[in-house]
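To whoever picks this up:

The parser on our side crashed when reading a file containing two proteins. I've narrowed it down to the boundary between the first structure block and the second sequence. Both blocks are reproduced below exactly, byte for byte. First block:
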Amino acid sequence: MRTNLMRGTAALTLAATALAMTACGSSSSSSKAGAASGGHGKVTLTFVNWDGGMQAAVDQWNQANPDIQVQLSKPSGTGYTLYNKLITNNAAGTNPDVTEVEYQALPALIANKVIVPIDQYVGDISADFDKSSLAQVQFEGKTYGVPQNVCPMVFFYRKDIFDSLGLKPPTTWDEYAADAATVHAKNPKQYIGNFSAVDSGWFAGLAQQAGANWWTTSGTTWNVAIDDAPTQKVANYWSGLIDKGLVSPEPNWSPQWSTDMNSGNIIGWVSAQWAPNQFPSVAKDTAGKWVAAPLPAWTAGDPTVGIWGGETEAVTANSKHPAEAAKFVKWLNSSTEGVKTLIQQVAAFPASLSNQSQDALKTPPPFMSDQQDYNTLIAQAAKNVRTFQVWGPNANVTFDAYSNDFAAALQNKTPLSAALTQMQQATVADLKKRGFSVTG
């Protein structure tokens, strides 16, 4: 989903293999499952998903499809708690037919043969999704899910406070730095924003905007470049703001951060499409005071942004009804009816291009009811999303290293660029330990 699910990741058990991740999603699993499907009589599919409001979509499907019924359940944990369970249960054959998967975790499930390609069931979906969205679910020419949503990063700011300071939302990162100095000089208790050492997905989105590719593949070899020049640029930029005391070191979701957001001591948030759904629990007293603006650019006029969050639904290798499961997945994430329910009940911004102009998107999020063009802004940002070419099969290790090493850098007042080197080393070492061929 679009909240804070990519923080606090647990260690994910990866299958030891010398192959590139995408080569592990063998066609034999899909063929075996397809043979078991049969396609006759009433079918009941099990579906694991943690999003609030998803039951409405399931009910809608069940009413229209009496012969293919879906039973929804919520996992006991989210994120990598669920993914570890899926990997563990795969050998026992006890996984659900369909599971929710965040984009960055899909490669690990493919590597462990937990999920199967669905091309033969959904056909060519490329006409309704842009390359960035397809890159999240397609590997070596195989499709492992239908993209559900796109979560471009944007900048949220307290318009009332910005107006009182005579400021407009920054359009470049240079302007953001200058405004940060102005805000803090006017009131030493106030900050334009914060640096979050616990949100690896947040930092990854900023690196994507700058041009980073943390993982790439060549044949069966992975190349890891987490400490590449674009990412170093991002790290050094935030190091400069931190060293000058111009941004808060309080991480997203901490009690103090929420207090500061609610009180007006933090007056901006570099976040993503889903942020309005978090504001009621983060800054409940500030409804109507926040406005979204495009993410600051590295070069004036460049609309490129990264993503923070996003997910798909995948069909598991344990499913005895992969054709029916894939039919449900495609309906949920690309049909007019299914997507409308996701917009209204799950607050998703659809990855499906044909559904990005739905009337349901003309209504802004309740917390930002005064910004009527909110989803127009998101739609424009979504057109300019740049993602990594591929997520690595051990992204969770990278994310854990981020949380540990960046937090240590803040505490020890050392450069963030050194933490990048540690992330790089941890990621490469883990891949080698798991039997992958690695460079970097």
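<<boundary where parser fails>>
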Amino acid sequence: MAQAPLLLVSATLFTIMFALGVGLKGDAMAQLRRRPALVLRVLIGSCVLVPLVALLLLKLPQSLTLSQPARFGIALMAASPSAPLTLRKAGKTGGDRELAAVLQACAAVAAIVSIPLIADVFQSSFGITGWDIGPKEVALQVGKAQVLPLLAGLGLRRWQPSWAQRLSGPLDKLANGLLLLLILLVLIKSLPLLVPFAAANLLALGFMAVMVLVALAIGYGLAGPDPRESTTIALVTSMRNPGLALLFASSYGAGMVGLKLAVLSYLLVTVLLSIPFLRWQRQRQQAA
């Protein structure tokens, strides 16, 4: 029974990524061949610029008043690119699913190198020890949860398009059901703890909000004039990977009370602040 929540998380992420791969109608990899410079810019923004912004913010004198879990939570989320739900959100909010698929897959692969390097930078900058995050554990997590199921879905779409067509609808409904169940379980378990944590860390929530807004601005600035593209790239850049952050919190900060709550708080701030941005982008698309 103790493994049931972990199995639900794994099953949900696998189903979501597989369903997204099956549902992609065009040649997603053509985006990489056509626009390699854009992909490179987005990777630099998501994997390098966003973590460096967090480093600068955490160097401010005001950040010294933040609790240790809040500081570590901000650092972990900033260092963890390629959120598994980016493709789903991009497809439902007027973004480009195929471009999001390429950017997310590339960011997941780039994270294998970028996260250990960023972790070393944070350790040396703040004199922290014991957070020696290696490429192997990053590769295992992003491979199992994101890259492999997405590639499997794309492969099925390419080699058995008739099967993919039939399975796309049921898989999407199954993914929605599992995601809803997971969200409900997380809220039931964490909401009673999140409220007092947020009340005790209001300044930290402000720092998280600044991080999210700057990440949205970085993504928006990296995109072209197309509203669909700017929506997609802003989501890819701003939405961090809570699965990776929670994995590192469990592995390296198990004794730090409130660290996982800080990660969930960052995720909640990201979701809330993305709502007005996406509404504005939809208005731009309607005007165009």
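After patching the parser it read the second block fine. DSSP finds twelve helices and no strands in the chain. The two ends are 52 Å apart (CA to CA).
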